[in-house]
Write a structure and sequence with these properties.
Helix content: 25-40%
Distance between the termini: 18 Å
Radius of gyration: 13 Å
Structural class: alpha+beta
Order of helices and strands: EHEH
Shape: globular
Number of helices: 2
């Protein structure tokens, strides 16, 4: 990251309402971190199934709370 200031770190894979705590140590080290969530927003974990609205809202709520702590 220090060698490429125009690139910002991002995390993807396995994130959802039950695993957002895994982002916190990374966010502490990289306040501009971004993350992506898909499969863990589906109760089945199957990417072919629709995203569960409650799971998406809960993951977003957790993301906002966590991000505010490091701004």
């Amino acid at each position: 990251v220090a060698d490429c200031p125009h690139l910002l770190p991002a995390v993807a894979g396995g994130l959802g309402p039950s695993s957002m705590h895994l982002v916190e140590p990374l966010l502490r080290a990289h306040p501009n971190l971004s993350w992506d969530m898909q499969s863990k927003l589906r109760p089945s974990g199957d990417a072919k199934d629709p995203i569960d609205l409650w799971m998406a809202k809960e993951a977003l709520r957790q993301s906002v709370v966590m991000k505010r702590r490091f701004l």
